[in-house]
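hiii so um. not sure if this is the right channel but i have a protein structure encoded as tokens and i wanna go backwards to a sequence. like what aa goes where. can anyone help
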């Protein structure tokens, strides 16, 4: 199974004190890069989440959003902390005695003072494990999403491989005859140019040129690289970098084939090969 670097998954979970929300999405990246957006109540879960995701993902820019919404029914009636209020009152009087020009605390500032309504902190010891359990479910959905897209990308790449094989299969039988005709034309041109030169000299020149335009090795390497592309895709796993390297090798062989071409048909085939290889390379940029 091959995986795309693009994926998305989201889930919510109702817990005793509210609702957890976790969202995962990713785009292409050369490396594994995380971006966490976590509510303050669950900030302690960031490191375990990073370790969980790193164990299953190898490439991509991953964005993780974790949110928590407390239940309205769990919000108790607001009661001011009388002891804290008296303490603030005494401190304010002391400050105003020493600094008569100081501004007094406003009602809003007093109500926002930490602990003014008692200790209403969440029980993060139980909330964090629940968030991690939800993250495991989201990660499974996320991996399945990337696998589905990876399968489609693999099918596209294999279809391009088949088209390249068809092009090579069509042009290969015609190359010897085309090269022989060109060599005969070259031989005649050499005779016309050299005039009295002996046949041995002409045969040597033609033989040297025949070696230079021989594309049998390029076609053989093309076939070998295509076999390796198919093998890597069928093997699955994190194969994006390996396939990207194979695209460079395929493109190199197509360029050499075009530079050695002496007939328009082979030149056109080389251009078609480069187009198909570039199409494969664009899809491979999305693979993990």
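sure thing!! here u go:
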């Amino acid at each position: 199974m091959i995986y795309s670097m693009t994926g998305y998954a989201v889930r919510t979970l109702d817990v005793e004190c509210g609702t957890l929300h976790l969202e995962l999405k990713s785009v292409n990246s050369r490396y594994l890069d995380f971006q966490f957006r976590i509510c303050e109540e669950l900030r302690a879960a960031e490191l375990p989440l990073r370790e969980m995701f790193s164990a299953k993902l190898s490439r991509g820019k991953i964005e993780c959003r974790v949110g928590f919404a407390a239940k309205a029914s769990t919000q108790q009636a607001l009661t001011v902390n009388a002891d804290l209020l008296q303490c603030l009152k005494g401190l304010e009087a002391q400050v105003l005695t020493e600094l008569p020009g100081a501004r007094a605390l406003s009602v809003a500032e007093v109500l926002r003072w930490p602990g003014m309504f008692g200790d209403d902190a969440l029980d993060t010891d139980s909330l964090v494990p629940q968030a991690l359990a939800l993250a495991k479910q989201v990660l499974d959905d996320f991996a399945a999403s990337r696998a589905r897209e990876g399968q489609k990308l693999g099918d596209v790449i294999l279809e391009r491989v088949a088209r390249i094989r068809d092009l090579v299969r069509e042009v290969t039988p015609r190359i010897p005859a085309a090269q022989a005709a060109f060599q005969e034309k070259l031989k005649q041109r050499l005779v016309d140019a050299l005039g009295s030169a002996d046949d041995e000299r002409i045969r040597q020149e033609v033989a040297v040129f025949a070696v230079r335009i021989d594309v049998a090795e390029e076609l053989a390497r093309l076939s070998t690289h295509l076999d390796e592309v198919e093998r890597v895709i069928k093997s699955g796993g994190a194969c994006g970098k390996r396939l990207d390297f194979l695209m460079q090798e395929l493109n190199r062989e197509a360029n050499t084939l075009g530079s050695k071409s002496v007939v328009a048909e082979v030149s056109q085939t080389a251009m078609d090969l480069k187009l198909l290889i570039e199409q494969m390379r664009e899809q491979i940029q999305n693979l993990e």
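oh and The longest strand covers residues 60-70.
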